[in-house]
Amino acid sequence: MIIDLNGINFAYNESGKGTPLLFIHGFPLNRHLWSSQVDHFSKWFRTIVIDLRGHGESQAVPGPYSIEMLATDCLSLLDALDIQTPVILCGLSMGGYISLAFLKKFPSRVGGLILAATRANPDSLEGRQNRDKAIVLAAQQGPTAIALSMLPNMFAPKTHQFSPSLVNDLRRMMSATSEQGIIGALHGIKNRADSTALLPLIHIPTLIIHGAEDQLIPLSVANEMQAAIPGSTLSVIPRAGHLLNLEQPHLFNQALENFLLPNYFAR
Ligand code: MLT
Asked: Which of 202, 228, 46 is nearest to 112 (CA)?
């Protein structure tokens, strides 16, 4: 579906009924990242997936896209769908940065949080310099060059070895992101705020889920977030890297189910 939100066309899908469960993809991906989760969780929840601006089939507009701006786009979609009750946010990596920004900006609109392969702290100086290099690469050589530079770190080593079609699908998904989208989002990621002070203030059900072999965001980061968020749970997915929901969809869905069903059905 395509919807106009504040003058920009966004692609989204919704399916199922019940508590809204909004999935927010990472960089430079799109809403199809969540296909297995939509199939599985639409039985119990009203699942919503969005292509962030400049990603997937959503319109590319000039950046920079701040993380707060991307969070506000998600709120605009919820408003347009007339969803005023608290939603469960599930954000992966950049989607997690957006989920934390959303929670900070619109706390009354969030009833649960799933932080997948993400972190609350900002980029280091070296990390910021690498974002600048990526911006130059995207501007000079385009999305495919970004996809190829990121690809080796997106999955666990064994996924690269044994699942070539998954690797190929991911390369295509990343290459399909617009140049404006890539550059706009890189600026936002590079300049994102530090959300660590928010963590001890989170008092909604929270699941942190991380691949045991994440090469982009080490598992220790997830352990630290879990220690900082009162009452949160950490689920570590074996044989998975950064894109754990693609690599181990059954284990990922099982972990979400273990978190979601008791919290949202058996109260
Ligand atoms: C992502 O998966 O969203 C990105 O790898 C996030 C990042 O580079 O910080």
From this structure: 202
- Give me the domains of the chain, ranges plus CATH numbers: 2-264 (3.40.50.1820)
Give the residue, out of 34, 216, 217, 244, with the most ligand 1 atoms within 8 A of its beta carbon, to mutate for a pocket test: 216
CB count within 10 Å of CB 214 equals 25
- Tell me the pLDDT tens digit for each residue of 176-187: 999 999 999 999
The pLDDT value recorded for residue 266 is: 64
Q: Give the list of residues 6+ apart from residue 200 with CB closer than 8 angstroms, or none.
A: 228, 229, 230
- Phi, psi dihedral angles at 157 (to 5 degrees): -55, -40
Q: Tell me how many degrees the CA angle 29-41-88 measures, rounded to the nearest 5.
A: 75
Instruction: List all residues 6 or more positions away from 23 whose beta carbon is below 8 Å from its beta carbon.
Output: 31, 33, 34, 37, 38, 47, 48, 49, 50, 90, 91, 92, 95
Which protein residue has the closest C-alpha to ligand 1 atom 5?
27
Contact between residue 156 and residue 241 where contact means Cβ atoms under 8 Å apart: yes
Q: How far apart are CA 235 and CA 191, in angstroms?
A: 28
Minimum-distance ligand 1 atom for the alpha carbon of 94: 3
Q: Mean pLDDT over residues 19-42, rounded?
A: 98
Q: Does pTM top 0.85 for this prediction?
A: yes
Residue 129 CA, ligand 1 centroid: distance in Å: 15
Q: pLDDT tens digit string along 56-86?
A: 999 999 999 999 999 999 999 999 999 999 9
Q: How far apart are CA 139 and CA 147, in angstroms?
A: 13
Write down the pLDDT at residue 265. Answer: 85
